[in-house]
Design goal:
The complex is a heterotetramer, with two copies of chain A and two copies of chain B. By secondary structure, chain A is α+β, with helices and mostly antiparallel strands. Helices cover 52% and strands 10% of the residues of chain A. Chain A has four domains: 6-172, no CATH class; 201-337, Alpha Horseshoe (Serine Threonine Protein Phosphatase 5, Tetratricopeptide repeat), CATH 1.25.40.10; 365-374 and 555-678, no CATH class; 377-394 and 402-440 and 479-552, no CATH class. Chain A has helices at residues 19-27, 67-82, 139-155, 179-192, 214-226, 229-242, 247-256, 260-273, 278-290, 294-307, 312-324, 328-337, 371-374, 378-387, 390-393, 402-430, 434-437, 485-513, 522-534, 538-551, 555-572, 591-618, 625-638, 640-651, 658-671; strands at residues 11-13, 38-46, 52-60, 86-88, 91-93, 95-106, 111-118, 123-129, 134-135, 170-172, 360-361, 449-450, 483-484. Chain B has one helix at residues 51-73; strands at residues 2-11, 15-19, 25-29, 42-49. Chain B is elongated. Classes of the chains: A alpha+beta, B alpha+beta. Chain A binds chain B through residues 260-261, 264-265, 267-268, 271-272, 275, 284, 287-288, 291, 293, 296, 299-300, 303, 432, 437, 440, 442-446, 449, 451, 478, 481-482, 573-577, 591, 594-595, and chain B through 11-15, 30-31, 35, 38-39, 61, 64-65, 67-69, 71-75, 79-82, 84. Strand 4 of chain B pairs antiparallel with strand 4 of chain C.
């Protein structure tokens, strides 16, 4: 959305003049990551009462290319607030913005850029170091500031983890609305590439590297959203000239643009030059896996692990391949060797200080509304939290992070394929069990490893329970491994998830058979959906999310349903001529049935994406790469005209602004020539 | 080739503390110790490079790489994609 | 006796990360690796118990213990203590 | 001292009634060690003004054997305060104590015993758990409380580290003044021995064990002070019947009572039973070392290390032997393998809360005084701290703790023997130096080890500087070790100590040659003394301490001088017929010179011990095992009558109470038949 209304600007009232700016300055020395989001501070004069107040809010996606471009943004905010009386804590106030300030953190040089406009009057700008000293503004520093701001905007755009306890006084703007910004970003990426480590990296990595960091992640995301792949290839080719190891970036650009053969060509070239390039080997393994050549994938992945044994990604890929080929023993052994990242938190946008609730001005944007989405009462959600079944709410697997969450995903994949009983059998086969160990009295396990617990994990359904592990021959002892403590813990979490899921399914079957009503809240359905999802019961999860949405809107359920429909959509595009209705059911669909199912998926995708867009808009977020990419899938398959008509048919006449909102996305896709936008 | 004689000082399930004659304290994976070892035992550890195996590995690796390239890295006719 | 073939994955001054064929990641003291080893090398590690050396050690230890006991553990005439 | 005056009871005014008791209750759940010192709380009524106040102080050494014995102690405090008007914040107040409460923490059961007497009236007592619940009093709990209190008293009696920032509102009483208490302690030790681990252990040990913990330490100290060795032997023999590993305790009792042959007999027996008993092997090594049979000592110590490679003590003993025989390469290698204890703090007595300075009532005991000691003005000391040479004050080696301090002591022993240049040469020979390492680019050192630093440590005197380590053959690389990071750090600290010491000696020589005056404060002399002491220049250290005491009294200098004289005294008793004047000077002393020197030492020991006693008394501490043991050395060598006469000659006539104070120590020694008390 390129237009802004008073209703789409959240504000926080400052307790004293310049509070937010002072608190920001106090934060600067301690910043260890990408820094706080950009800040807008406004000084507002009531020209009737002559009272002066100051407010602030956070923003991402502004193109912080120079002081004059920032001044223009500040002027436009000032105009919107000043142009008509603002609804301010229940009353209309004739505010006039007389001064506005913008701050943006530069992660490369650890400086803060500050632009202030006086209205009427001139703009001034300066930069400060993290210790508060004034620094001379240079073009280089402005470029770094722009790139830093772009990274923050792109990296945090669809931050699901931050849903609760997140900043509400934040506007998210699409930073890719004009070609100049994109061009400037790509130029800046190339110039600052060698400093990319300073931007940090995803929580799955121990440390940022030249080839894996937030700057590189942002580069790929920008290419994907703007489809400027050719330009990306040119840039990366220039980087390769300076450093051969950059070849992996080229392969990744080709992968993004669906040029798999070119990608593999580059990968093979690179591996010839450095047969221990773990990144290329892992990528190669993933492609082979996608082509169902697991034999070749194992070779590549094993060499990757041997080349970079302290990197989680290499091990996880190898484990994944073993799971795919059904070699669960090796899968568990490989999982057990995964080097976990224990100390890192994911980057989130953080406040510079916590405002009081009563100082928050959070207007309701009235230009775009869908009643059930826009007017969702937070009190109802809070009430559900109070009455929710505690066993559902506190499932510890739900809060797993980074490498632990990924390892858990691999474990649930195994259990989904073979069941809990079989998993326990494999576990007892490869790991030293407690009861075996007690015979070896002189030993004691070291702190990072442990003995697989005999007692605490039992069969989920007591009836099915058979004694596990007792059949193991004593002579096998030395051949077995000690289980890493974290992995042993994941088995415990898996047990708890399975217990809750099994109980829920039993209840579901019972109620369905008796044709009785479910008495669950949206939150409970959401949680049931999430545990089903973790256990890879996607169909069951999608049903739960649908129940959840049947009672009230839930952004979590909405996003998960979109993910489900997209997965189903891509399954329907598989080159195999036979597509089963779901993974478990072996009967295949006819072409007619496939067509009908696709159409069902498209309609549901569109309706959920529209709701997601309206929800984002209500919370001042006009930028969601996920929404754009998801809609692009539907457009690519069905053509833009069909999608536009679908949205129009439902929303155009109702004057609720929904079509206008979605039209901004359509325009964005047309501008960047997304496939399917030409018909 | 390295060959050393070491005394087992302490032994737990995954790590053993070994001692050299000149008082170097070495953490050693228990899994590599033979059966029947206890604290106080003396072990002889030999470590040498296996160039033959390295060569074999290298050849096998190159062969697999060639196969992958031939299969997926060259512009060969594509399987038809289902479009309805 | 234990004999294993391992691939050197990573190498620093004191610790090497070695990998078995079945994906066991083992931290191994670099000092026990032969010269010229680099990441990617394959090594053969042999470990066996040295019972002969243990016996020799045991005898030597007992002999020293006997000597200590004879010297300082039995009531023999004491050296005169200087008292003025 | 068995008598107490108003002047020897410090008090803290409570802000509100029962403040100290409430704060104590709040502390209980968090106690992880031996707990806070015993507490006495008094409720005082001014029978003229009818004003009521409450006060408290800490105490150690009370025999907390039962509620009635504690009640008697409380009554006697009440009587002393009530018997005459008390000088209270500048005015004489006719206080009457109407209630008194005593608390003592039981570390075995984690309970607090509380006794309250009402005056006039009855006594009542109860016990509470750490969560504040009332617990039934039992004989067992009272025994545990008594033993806990005894451990605290003995362990903390001469706590040098706590000199600054320590509790001043604390009375230290000798807990061994009557035979019944000693008997009860020995019985209690035997009964609670198997729970000894609960009492914690010295900071040099990773974890308390059955054979090494504070209970066992207290047992040995009580035996030593009361000379009840025979009873100790009986008790330990009964323990051995239950657990063979207790044999090491028997050996230690024999060592304490100077029965070295018996000790060795037990040690050899024990090693035959368990040839991997590291404690016995270490003790054996120490004895062999004392007998200068380092060849045998190395055998025993090596076996000890092989038997318990994660224990610091074993390694330190082996390193010490290598230093003694001049095998500095092996000494450094052994030192480098020492497993350090990083996480532990030493046990200190701690307040239950920090009182305000103006609420402290710290009377001056006027019954025993030596002017320079008793009336030392704390403001003068504070002033010295403000003007002190910072390079002296902040020498980091001064704050080394536990195993790091011990390892540093071994390193300074080497440097004292061979000098810095030689030490650097050995260091370059055994450890991988930075410049050697840079050739091996593919490597990187792990976090706990490091490359010996080439640049930062240079020769102390630049003139003498020769390039170290460059002569090393590259082929040696693999034969060398990586230096542990902590050891590398100790080299840095040693360099700083040596630099300051060398500067001071150069200044000293210059000033002495020019017959100029030293312009240093006592604090500066103290610090010069300490750095000299750390570097094993004891003679030079003693001179500095004498200078320090020449300007004003300093308890630190006084204690260190006592230590120095004791060491010299024991050197004069060596069986060798030839005693050198000091370690460096090779000329030997005649018998006449030895006699003269001994007499000099005795007179100086007595005079410093008297001052220490008076200082302790001024700060309400009537119990110092160090004072008793040091005086016992003089008494053993010269006879009690001579010592008594010496004290009498100087102090008897002056009515300053000093002779009475020392006479308490003489009476204690006579009571327990200390050698030399019979003549």
């Amino acid at each position: 959305m390129s237009y802004v209304t008073q209703g789409s600007i959240p504000e926080v009232l400052e307790k004293y003049a310049n509070q937010s700016l002072e608190e920001r300055t106090n934060c600067l020395p301690a910043i260890q990551d990408l820094g706080p989001p950009d800040l807008v501070q406004l000084v507002k004069l009531n020209h009737h009462s002559h009272k002066e107040i100051s407010t602030f809010f956070y923003i991402t996606g502004t193109n912080v290319t120079s002081s004059s471009s920032v001044a223009a943004v500040l002027n436009s905010f000032a105009m919107i607030i000043s142009e008509s009386p603002q609804l301010w804590f229940g009353k209309h106030k004739p505010w006039r913005v007389i001064q506005a300030t913008f701050c943006s953190y530069n992660v490369f040089s650890k400086t803060d850029a500050v632009v202030t406009v006086h209205i009427p009057g001139s703009a001034e700008s300066h930069m400060v170091s993290s210790t508060g000293e004034k620094i001379k503004e240079t073009e280089q520093l402005w470029l770094e500031t722009f790139i830093s701001s772009m990274i923050r905007s792109i990296i945090t755009a669809d931050d699901d983890d931050a849903e609760f306890a997140s900043i509400v006084e934040l506007r998210k703007v699409n930073p890719l609305l004009n070609d100049e910004s994109v061009t400037l970003f790509l130029e800046g990426f190339e110039a600052l590439f060698w400093d990319g480590q300073k931007t940090g990296c995803h929580a799955n990595l121990q440390l940022p590297t030249l080839l894996e960091n937030y700057l590189v992640d942002t580069f790929f995301k920008v290419l994907q959203l703007t489809r400027r792949f050719d330009q990306g290839v040119e840039i990366v080719n220039r980087l390769i000239e300076q450093d051969e190891s950059c070849r992996v970036l080229l392969a990744k650009v080709y992968m993004l643009s669906n040029q798999e053969i070119k990608a593999m060509d580059i990968i093979c070239q690179g591996i010839k030059i450095n047969p221990r390039d773990a990144a290329l080997l892992t990528l190669q393994a993933e492609i082979c896996m996608g082509k169902s050549r697991h034999d070749l994938a194992i070779h590549a992945a094993t060499r990757a692990v041997e080349s970079s044994p302290s990197e989680f990604k290499c091990w996880a890929t190898l484990a994944k391949i073993y799971i795919n080929v059904g070699n669960f023993e090796e899968a568990l052994l490989t999982l057990n060797s995964c080097p976990m990242v224990t100390h890192k938190d994911r980057y989130h946008l953080k406040r510079v200080f916590n405002p009081l609730k009563q100082d928050l001005h959070l207007p309701l944007p009235v230009d775009v509304t869908i009643d059930e989405v826009t007017t969702l009462n937070p009190a109802d959600v809070t009430q559900e939290h109070k009455t929710v079944d505690a066993s559902l709410l506190n499932l510890p697997a739900a809060s797993l992070k980074s490498t632990f969450a990924e390892a858990y995903g691999l474990l649930t994949e195994i259990v989904h394929k073979i069941g809990w009983e079989e998993l326990l059998r494999y576990r007892a086969k490869v790991f030293v069990m407690e009861h075996e160990y007690k015979k070896e009295k002189s030993h004691s396990a070291t702190s990072s490893t442990t003995l697989a617990n005999d007692a605490t994990i039992k069969a989920i359904n007591c009836g099915n329970g058979q004694q596990n592990g007792n059949a193991v021959n004593d002579d096998d002892f030395r051949a077995k491994r000690l289980c890493e403590r974290w992995l042993d813990n994941l088995f415990m979490l898996l047990y708890e998830d399975l217990r809750v899921y099994t109980m829920y399914r039993a209840e579901h079957m019972h109620l369905t058979a008796q044709q009785m009503e479910f008495k669950k809240t949206t939150l409970e359905w959401e949680l049931i959906g999430m545990v089903s999802w973790r256990l890879k019961h996607f169909k069951e999860a999608s049903e739960a999310f649908k129940y959840a949405l049947g009672l009230r809107f839930s952004v979590k359920a909405c996003k998960k349903l979109i993910e489900f429909y997209l997965n189903e959509r891509s399954r329907m595009n598989q080159p195999e001529t036979s597509i089963a209705l779901n993974n478990l059911n072996q009967s295949t669909l006819s072409i007619q049935e496939i067509l009908k199912y696709r159409s069902f998926l498209d309609i549901n995708l569109i309706s959920n994406l529209v709701k997601l867009g309206v929800w984002n808009h209500r919370w001042y977020a006009e930028f969601s790469p996920k929404l754009i990419e998801s809609l692009a899938v539907v457009v690519e398959n069905g053509g833009l005209i069909k999608v536009e008509n679908e949205v129009k048919a439902t929303y155009f006449d109702s004057q609720d602004g929904v079509y206008d909102l979605m039209n901004e996305v359509f325009k964005f896709m047309k501008h960047y020539d997304y496939p399917g936008t030409d018909n | 080739m390295v060959q050393v004689s070491l005394t087992v000082g302490k032994l737990d399930a995954s790590l053993a503390l070994l001692l050299t004659k000149d008082h170097h304290l070495i953490e050693f994976p228990t899994i590599l110790l033979p059966d029947g070892i206890t604290a106080g035992s003396i072990v002889r550890i030999t470590c040498d490079r296996n160039l033959e195996e390295e060569q074999k590995e290298k050849e096998q690796f190159e062969q697999v790489q060639e196969e992958i390239y031939d299969l997926f890295g060259k512009n060969t006719p594509q399987a038809p994609v289902l479009r309805v």
